[in-house]
Amino acid sequence: MSKTEPVDLSAFSVPGSGRGILDVFSYGYLLRLLVRKGILTRYHGSVLGWAWSYVKPTAQFFIYYVVMGVFLNLSRGIEAFPIYLFSGIVVVNLFNEAFGNATKSIVNNKALVKKIYLPRELFPIADVFIAFVHFLPQLSILIVVCLVFGWVPTFVQLAGALLAIFIVLLIATGLGLFFGSINVSYRDSQNLVDLILMFATWTSPVLYSFTMVRDKLPTWLFDLYMLNPLTSAVELFHSAFWFPTTSETAERPEHLWFFAGISVVVALVMLLIGQFVFRKLEGRFAQDL
Amino acid sequence: MPKTSELEPPRIIVEGVRKTYTLRHTQSFKETFVAWLKRKRTSTSFQALNGIDITVGDSEAIALLGYNGSGKSTLLKLVSGVLRPDAGRVLTRGRVAGLIEVGAGFHPDLSGRENVYLNAAILGMSKDEIDARFDEIVEFSEIGEFIDTEVKHYSSGMFVRLAFSVAIHTELDILLVDEVLAVGDAPFREKCKTKIREIVAAGKTLFIVSHDLGMVSDLCSRGIVLRRGEVVFDGAIGDAITTLKASTR
Prior knowledge:
The complex is a heterodimer of chains A (289) and B (249). Chain A contains 13 helices and 1 strand, in the order E-H-H-H-H-H-H-H-H-H-H-H-H-H. With 289 residues, chain A is mostly helical. In chain A, helix 4 packs antiparallel against helix 6, helix 4 (81-108) packs antiparallel against helix 8 and helix 6 packs antiparallel against helix 7 (155-185). Chain B has 249 residues and is of the alpha/beta class. Chain B has a single domain (12-246), classed as P-loop containing nucleotide triphosphate hydrolases (Rossmann fold, 3-Layer(aba) Sandwich), CATH 3.40.50.300. In chain B, helix 3 crosses helix 4, helix 3 (112-122) crosses helix 5 and helix 4 (127-141) packs across helix 5. The model of chain B is unreliable at 1-5 (pLDDT under 50).
């Protein structure tokens, strides 16, 4: 075959090059199947099956309630402390599950990543969706408990809860892409993430009230504390679920919507950084795994 | 065999491709530090492919031959997009499907049916395409009534047959095959060969890596011999096999 004649290259594509996260949407069907696989195999071989998704958060709630509320007496000053506690815990659980699993997703799908080209963003994103599905049982427990205690939320409060879920999923995706791609070459990444997840429960007002932080910290440090996207998400959940079940006299953080807006921006920036790093490292995935 | 490659643009273009692997010898700071103290090298590089130029035309069946470590699988992975070249470029036209290690996407806890859908989607098929071909896939695999059984209960032969059947029924223009034809028993292998011949006859491009010289000379018309990351022969399959037999690792 002579090579002198120029070949029209317009119909050609470079294998292994994609548009990153945007490509995931053109693989919508596969994404659905991956999420389905994750959900079907999650409790495979266990007798209780999906009941575990109800048992675990309930048990976790009781531990925190007994230790924090009864032994340490943190419930003092917080009305309807059990609901306060639980509405925060579910948000942090969603974050931990989504972020933790997304971090390990590339390594867990080693066999596929090494053999077949797919937009690799599919794996962390599928894990975030799976985490969301597992969040739904917890959310339903929360709603039932709130209804028992006469929960009548306003439209704005519900919108806030949806925004909170959006923020958590977005930031978990961004962080998951970032740490997940580093995890391929350096498994230190997943240990670091475990550390971050441990901090997550304590650096947002889940087990205590934000007023306790405000009274102890200088203003600038408290602002920093409020800038944590997880803090806004937890407080939005408090506003939506806990606040309407109380006498509505408790103090709420100022400028919550402003901080939530900042959180969305932070989450989007994190997503961009995550995607950028992911694309940089993606070329080495198949040979480093 | 003369092909119409003068009229049709090629399917695969590999131009000046180089691929170097860097092998890290140290895994932790401690090891790196100790190696540095002893003035040992912390990494070595290995040239897997060195300046490869290959053009594959439409409906050509090409065998990639070479001994272990000659860079065959690396080249196939570059064409499939799993790896990226360090220099040069790889271009493909049309849908590429790889029979590279069948069953990579199978999950043991899912039924055969669910695995078929999952794997076909991984290989780039849409739901409608899979629906349309599902019966054909199951029939080819000879799994029959066990299609709704969890894959972990399958015998290894059944597992491979199903995986292969999914891969071979994907919608494709270029089929990459890496050492997977050694699957199943003799009748099934015969069936696979027939199927692959059908695919080639239908004008698809076949790019195959194998040590099974008998089968390769049966299926392919052109052979490329690789040795230590370089093309040492590119021409008719019979001559390629002769070259391979005469060469050393």
